[in-house]
Amino acid sequence: MSRARIAPAAGPFDLNLEAIAPDKSISHRCAMFSLLSDRPSRIRNFLTGEDTLASLSIAEQLGARVEREGGEVRITPPKRLSEPDDILDCGNAGTGMRLYCGLLAGVEGSFVLTGDRYLRARPMKRVTEPLRKIGAKIDGREYGNLAPLHIRGGELRAFRYESPIDSAQVKSALILAALRADGPSYYRESFLSRDHTERMLRGMGASVETDDEGWIVVEPMKGPLEPLEITVPADPSSAFFFAVAAAIVPGAKVRIPGVTLNPTRIEAFRVLERMGAEISYETTEDLYEPIGEIRVAYAGRLRAVEVSERIAWLIDELPALAVAMAVAEGTSRVRNAAELRVKESDRIASVLAALSACGIATEEYPDGYAVTGGTLRNAVIDSHGDHRIAMSFAVAGLLCGMEIEDTDCVATSFPNFFELLSRITEVTTDGD
Questions:
Q1: Residue 274: which of 246, 248, 305 has the closest Cα?
Q2: Pick the catalytic residue: 23, 195, 235, 316?
Q3: String of b and e for 81-120 (b: at least 16 CB within 10 Å)?
Q4: What does pTM read for this prediction?
Q5: pLDDT for 236-246, tens place per residue?
Q6: Catalytic site residue 316?
Q7: pLDDT above 70 for 431
Q8: What is the pLDDT of residue 12?
Q9: pLDDT confidence bin for 288, thresholds 50/70/90
Q10: Which fold does the domain 3-22+233-429 belong to in CATH?
């Protein structure tokens, strides 16, 4: 089993993160949305992580020609998406599987989506069930709740669907299906989840608008969309690990240029700001996404915080935020976050087990947890194959040292994470 040993940071650091990982969510969508055009899309700074490369490979299996040169990808879509002669492997990516379900549901043909053992254990009914109601033919284990999933694409009906959960993946799957429905479709969630899909599709010429009552109204495509011409910004979810590092190591600073400042993506930074970290934001451009620079600096011991709102905007950053809570003064609480239970691991259980191993007092709720700040101690942490657990507790190791087990998963989203962390402290991985 792969593992990493993190030594405590020797002192303050001033880190310029020009090499932060490109945004995973946007990279996935670039690979898929390019298939909706009839002309080549050009994507600069595409994330070459295992999950996003899986989405790119699936595009190829569906008939696209993919040319890669460094961090630039050129995707030439086929005139018509073709039935693949093999299964489509999404790797570890729930985003890849759920969005491809929506995209392929309206495409004539037979498609089988699978993934690694962790992805095959994640619930897909939240996507397959509403898609079936509009005419999609999807089956799999547990009546279509678990992969492998088989999709027999065909005609789809227009719909009006109010989602019981706030999920960008569910929303995106239904929007992609709506583009091939037989009339205008309506989708609504109780709280706006991350909105990359709406922004990017509008930029490609699709009619995806939100009315006064909060319904996202999607008109079917009248023809191919415009191709993408985009530079993928740095991923704020990846950058957030180093924001926490700067907020908990006395005297530390970090500068994160070229990152998306989409309000639905930087909520975790806002929470860290409320805890007492010094954070500034500067917008430099705004085309598909607002892009700019974030600076974070240590400003003393953090304060406890309550997190129960805008959960859909920071769900992925909660494990790293838990590390900040572990050293904050007082008891922090996270509620309304039951979605953590069905991520790459049960992140409520994984976070609390790791914090307990580090000597931090916690309390578990069905939809979250409480963390009482204290002094982190060295421990051996099982990542459970979850990249965000592995990286979060590697950052905790800057204060006390840490050994993380099962670290291969980090390559799925942030291939150079340990290289960047080694600029701060000594990092030893298997094979060193």
A1: 305
A2: 316
A3: beebeebbbbbbbbbbbbbbbbbbbbbeeebebbbbebbb
A4: 0.83
A5: 999 999 999 99
A6: yes
A7: no
A8: 96
A9: confident
A10: UDP-n-acetylglucosamine1-carboxyvinyl-transferase; Chain (3.65.10)
